[in-house]
Amino acid sequence: MRFVVGIVLPALLLSMVASCGSAGNYAGSPAEQVGSPGQGAGAIAPVGPQPLSYVLSSPAATNRYVFVANTTNNTVAKIDESNLSITSIPVGLMPTAVDVTPDNRTAAVFNAGDYSVSLIDISTDTVTTLPVDTYDNTMVVSPSGNVAITYFDPSKSSNLLANPTRNFNDITIVDITGATSALVNVGYLPYAVVFTPDGSKALAVTTSLISVIDLYRGYAVTRYQLVDPTQQQIVPSSLKITADGRFALAVVQGSSDVVVLDLTNGSKTVLSLGPTVTDIGLTADGSRAIAVNQGNGSLSFITLSTFRVTTLYTGLDINSIAVSPDGTDALLYTNSPTTTTAAGETVYVLSFTDSSIQSYPVIKGVSSVIMAPFTITTGVSSAIIVHNGPGGSSSDPVKQFFYNNYAVTMFNMATGVSTPVALVSRPTLFAVSSDGAYGYAMMPDSDAIAVFDLLTQIATGVYVPSTPTFVGVMPGMHTAYLGETYPLGRLSFIEPDQGIAVRTITGFELKTN
């Protein structure tokens, strides 16, 4: 494999351990170690998409610009990727989160110092700043780009002051087009806010109810009690919305039940599927849902037009489902094995075409899965399987090598070909290009980034000038951008189409948390 340090250096072969086969074996390119041999400690931290929080200032990007919040200077840096020029844009106090609307016209900035959202017109750099509710700490932008919503997530802050009054029922809706903001009461302590795919409705999710906000009709709120809060809770992270925006589905914690809410008429249907349902997936057209039943290792296929349930398979070691972005298949796995040390070292590919499954072994237990977008030009659908941290024992020296290190596996969903890759330290954040060709893993403990060519399943380790704090990929491009910890502020770009070239820009305007 190639090992790149600094700006652009010749490739350096480190080490390779072979692993080959077909379904039921490790297959594809040789397994590779990214970085240098190292021992990890502890378990992999949660990965995958996370809501924005003011604890970490994360950049955001269009297909030309990257926006970085300067928390100490009350500005946002606008970096032109083509020439690395920087424009400093004044915003509110202590900007801590940035997001960009899908049309690339507006950057929304959450300011934690004065509890406001600044809207930057990307073409003119003009700024409009609007107030939001005091103590809000999370911001999400709708897929249509018409609104941003801020709310207080208690998992991110212990700030529970009343100054002079306070409730935990309100969210703030910022009208990006009209440049106004409004408080909306959605029920006690929403843990998440999600949107229908068309952006017409927002769903504020608590542990017992869903409040549906009509974003096009005066923010009218309709509350639906999904379970009795004195007896049951829904799992907010399990909420799924069908592609047509008609149904919302959620798992009832520690039970056999899935709640289905019809968003067109408010009707609620409770389906009892098995001993313990833990996750839900949806087909691309939204016609079917697939519930994972960890209790007996089965899958329940739900036809949403009739609520007909067909349960297939038993005894699978699964508790989670990751659906491919094109909605044609899914990867089944467990991150909570219940039997032996080797349990959890099998994944299953589920075809939505004929409901068939194929099992494949993996090098070690699974922590989580990142699905890459379907690559139209090559017809390849890939997944990045994130494995558990160091631990375990094996008489096989190669397997023990992987047990001793952090690792991921590049996995081809169509063929089952896979390449396990050992990492120099713990991966904390992943990003994938919009065409599914490249993936990136950030390893801040070693100032390194892993670059995954998901088509060839070749991995490259890249050391960057300072500790990375965020990794993202510019829309429509393969170029990754990295926020980095540095006294003067630093941002690096990684260009996989140019031999894994690294370009770095340093300046006070880039200083983040």
Topology:
Blueprint: E1 2-5, E2 16-17, E3 31-34, E4 60-61, E5 65-70, E6 75-80, E7 86-90, E8 95-100, E9 106-111, E10 116-121, E11 127-131, E12 138-141, E13 147-151, E14 170-175, E15 180-185, E16 192-195, E17 201-205, E18 209-214, E19 220-225, E20 240-241, E21 247-251, E22 257-262, E23 268-272, E24 277-282, E25 288-293, E26 298-303, E27 308-312, E28 320-323, E29 329-333, E30 346-351, E31 357-361, E32 366-371, E33 382-387, H1 397-403, E34 406-412, E35 418-423, E36 429-432, E37 438-443, E38 448-453, E39 458-463, E40 468-473, E41 480-484, E42 490-495, E43 501-506
Parallel strand pairs: 1-39, 3-35
Antiparallel strand pairs: 2-3, 4-5, 5-6, 6-7, 8-9, 9-10, 10-11, 12-13, 13-14, 14-15, 16-17, 17-18, 18-19, 20-21, 21-22, 22-23, 24-25, 25-26, 26-27, 28-29, 29-30, 30-31, 32-33, 33-34, 34-35, 36-37, 37-38, 38-39, 40-41, 41-42, 42-43
Q: How would you explain this protein's 3D organization?
A:
This protein has 513 residues and is mostly beta strands. 1% of the residues lie in helices and 44% in strands. The chain is built from one helix and 43 strands. The strands form ten sheets. It has a six-stranded mixed sheet with strand order 2-3-35-34-33-32, with helices on one face. The longest helix has 7 residues, at 397-403. The protein is globular and about 60 Å long. The model is unreliable at 1-57 (pLDDT under 50).
Which features does this protein show?
513 residues; mainly beta; six-stranded mixed β-sheet; five-stranded mixed β-sheet; 1 helix; 43 strands; globular
